[in-house]
Amino acid sequence: MHQTVYLVMAIVLVGRTCLNSPFVSGQETSTKSLEAELTDVGGMLMKKMMPVASELATSPELSPECAGSLFKILKATRAREPWAIRMILANGLLPNNVLEGSLISLGGYEQCLKTRVFNSEGEVTHKGQYCSLFVYPPWSVIETLGRLNPLTVTTNAKIGKKALRIGLCTLNSCSEDEIKFLAAGVFKQYGANTTVSGCRTDDPKELTKLQYASIYYLSVLGLLVLIGTLIEWIVMTLPAPDMEASLLRVWPPLRWLMYFSAISNTKRLLKTTARKENQNLVFLSGFKIFLILWVIYAHCYVLIQPEFARTPFIFVDLSEKVLFQLMLNGLLSVSTFLFLSGFVMSFLMLQSRAVVRKQNPIGVYILAAVRRYIRLMVPIISVVMACFLLPHFADGPADHELLQQQVDGCIHRWWAVLLSFNNFYTVDKMCMIHLWYVSTDIQIFLVIAFPLTILFVWRVVETIELVYFRPFTHVATYVLGVVVGYLAVQYGKAKIGLVMQIAQWIISLALTGFILFITLPWNRGNPPDDITTAIYGGFHRLVWSLGLVWPAYACATGRGGLLNAFFSWKPFLPLSRLVYCVYLVHVPLLYLRMGILKTHISINEFFQLNTAIGLFGMSLFLAYLLYLSTEAPVTHLERLLFEGKRKDAIMNSAKKPADALPAKMPIVEWETKKDPLEKGFEIKLTIETDAKKMAVKESGVDNGAFQADSEKSKL
After folding, report:
1. DSSP H or E stretch at residue 666
2. For residue 452, which of 88, 435, 482, 484 sits 20 to 30 Å off, Cα-Cα?
3. Does residue 381 have a pLDDT over 90?
4. Rounded mean pLDDT of the chain?
5. How far is 558 from 523, CA to CA, in rounded Å?
6. Residue 90 or residue 31, greater confidence
7. Domain shared by 161 and 300, yes or no
């Protein structure tokens, strides 16, 4: 009989056994008894399996407990015991959409793990154990599947390189190695190779020492936020201004604890105004929001295990759709962020070149690099520490695969992240694959920032030429942004006619549209020749970035029109400050999704878009927690470390206006110095005396261009 018939009959038998009564009480039926039919089927299966089981059970590779459990299962199946039927039905069968590329049949994960075998005294003697069985079928089977599929060649090529993944439910008397031996013994007679992995029961997972350390670390951060918030709340309730000043003078660490206050940090986060001189960069906030949405949407397709797709061949159909090219070209968001990073750094440094020129360029460069590293790396440390806990919460057939692979990369190569060397490892050895971009960003900054600093001391044209033509793919895109930032500041007021502006918009749309959709005919069965492929691979990022030149220049110089007005919408400002944290946390959430997945993934545009939007919302919440516990406090502490005796005004924002403080009391005001995305700050230290007021401004190393772009999304 066909396996489906067996399945239906077994389900009926389970229901019959559990009810132990006629299907319709009080009525006689003239239908044939399914129990009798299944008894015959069970007898036939016993005749087939008993010789194999007897041969394997006597092997020295099996323990007596494992061998005994084999006969126990066969005997219980023949006797139609509920636990045996339950366990058999929890096994995976032939994948439903095997001719559409589906190679997995996960079976009943929860049903298997909840199976219990009781003795006569009601004690549990055995538990269900779930394993993943991988079967590599012989080529003859692949050819048969190919003949059943009109796309014979495609089917053969794709299935032949993969294994059939089947959920296997056994008793916990057998170890994973013993199950491997049993599976090999059953399938070798058919010429198929097998392997088994991921065997587990529903016993609680034990925390490792590293996971305990992660819990302590995250608990300390949470406690600091709670204490800082409580202290600020108490300070806000003080009846007199001089009491606050006295309190902080008596015990200065109170000020440090207030760096973690959720009150002040949330106020800063929700600020929707920008300094007048930075209005030209407000458009970046909305731009970054849509870029991170693009990144998340693409990752929802990419960061999965393809075999879990319900119909993997659907990717071929989707690739022929026009809008799906946005997903296929999602990596262009890398070029976009690099372009914007270079643009912002150049724009801001040129705005404050008078200050920078007074500083030692080498000192400015070193200090700027250190500060940027701190602001980028400390949030990553918190995310990685949290990721160590993900395997404890993941519970699914594949929780030991993609998710564990990424966590193991952090366990064994954490130092590569700290040294910004993570992007030199292969994907399967990286610590959280998306952190490669942070390493790339830091590396490019180290290469570009120093010559850009020299640019303010030496001649401009020669320096730009030296930097612009460096033969690095990503660096070229970054430097193109630097050039555009230079043009926006130096020639922002240049007269450009309406016709020329319209032409520039058309050219930009043509370049970006060309790069996005040139892949459409290739995905429809008309692949390019080798020369075209080489040209596209070498220049498509640069051409895409060229398409961004005019929009960035136009928005920064007041020529953006409706586009600039839309991206400059005030509600985008608070969200944009969380973009970097959103990027850091959304990928671990996708890995966690794979770790808890117990069924197929429906590869459908609507479901994937729905997933992306939901993931964005969840990531925003976690990003806010990361901002409160790590990013905002690090910003304050980093300033305290590098600005010496300069004081902090977080107290002032808590309660009182400046004029409420006593005479000769330092009044410190934190003001956004650069763009509204909080990448740098101006510090005004106003010392009130009886005779005069003195204002001291920060040095060039505090220029926003050198600050870590910690709100910027990374891919």
Report:
1. strand 666-672
2. 435
3. yes
4. 77
5. 39
6. 90
7. no
